[in-house]
Design brief:
The complex is a heterodimer of chains A (116) and B (114).
Chain A (H helix, E strand, L loop, with lengths): L2 E4 L3 E5 L4 E3 L1 E4 L4 E8 L5 E7 L5 E3 L5 E5 L4 E6 L8 E9 L9 E2 L3 E6 L1
Parallel strand pairs in A: 2-12
Antiparallel strand pairs in A: 1-4, 3-9, 5-6, 5-10, 7-8, 8-9, 10-11, 10-12
Chain B lengths: L3 E4 L2 E4 L5 E7 L5 E8 L3 E10 L2 E4 L7 E6 L2 E6 L8 E8 L9 E2 L3 E5 L1
Parallel strand pairs in B: 2-11
Antiparallel strand pairs in B: 1-3, 3-8, 4-5, 4-9, 5-6, 7-8, 9-10, 9-11
Classes of the chains: A mainly beta (116), B mainly beta (114).
């Protein structure tokens, strides 16, 4: 069965600093990978996803994540964060085949707090 | 208007009461899901449905039941609520034929059981 580990439960940073939110997954088959973002008092929104092809994927608001198959990781990065990036970020995985298809498994989340 | 609508958005109830959380969607998706979010635990799958006649248990279905009244409606019930069911509940939808499992979420229903 697939699983996701987000290594940091909270990440505080200052505005305009770089940030990396770490995500590792475990699966016996190929996977699809997602990052969702939850702003305060809102539902989850898709930030970016890796399906196939280029291992580096980008979002429209400056985040990027790189799929590393050998390290089973999908870390999220942004070179310069804004106050508005304060949110909880969830990494999620689904398997490309097998009994758990069509179900996302989520990590426990990382709370990113951007301070002025 | 939101594509995935949950009602109520907030509810406070007492132990032993029956509670229903409702979800409706205008996305035309066949797949619907109920997740529960607890601080530090992330999202955990309660039930999911791939069409009106299909209901499947997730990892934490005990104490919950669901009803898929139509393609667009999926309700979650707590027959006898208990305090450890206090949580934020999310409904989500997915497109049939999408192999990736990508989900689209509602705004959430915050339930407090006293």
């Amino acid at each position: 069965a697939q699983s996701v580990t987000q290594l940091d439960s909270q990440v505080p940073v200052f505005e305009e600093a770089p940030v990396e939110l770490r995500c590792n997954y475990s699966s016996s088959v190929s996977v699809y990978l997602f990052w969702y973002v939850q702003y305060p008092n809102q539902g989850l929104q898709l930030l970016l996803k890796y399906l196939s092809g280029s291992t580096l994927v980008e979002s429209i608001n400056g985040f990027e994540a790189e799929f590393n198959k050998s390290q089973t990781s999908f870390h999220l990065r942004k070179p310069s964060v804004h106050i508005s990036d304060t949110a909880e970020y969830f990494c999620a995985v689904s398997e490309t085949a097998g009994g758990s298809n069509y179900k996302l498994t989520f990590g426990k989340g990382t709370l990113l707090t951007v301070n002025p | 208007d939101a594509d995935v609508t949950q009602t109520p958005r907030n509810r406070i109830t007492k132990t032993g009461k029956r509670i229903m959380l409702e979800c409706s969607q205008t996305k035309g998706h066949d797949r619907m899901y109920w997740y529960r979010q607890d601080p530090g635990l992330g999202l955990r799958l309660i039930y999911y449905s791939f069409d009106v006649k299909d209901i499947n248990k997730g990892e934490i279905s005990d104490g919950y039941s669901v009803s898929r009244q139509a393609q667009a409606k999926f309700s979650l019930s707590l027959e006898s609520a208990i305090p450890n069911q206090t949580a934020l509940y999310f409904c989500a939808t997915g497109l049939a034929g999408d192999p990736t499992g990508e989900l689209f979420f509602g705004e959430g229903s915050r339930l407090t059981v006293l």
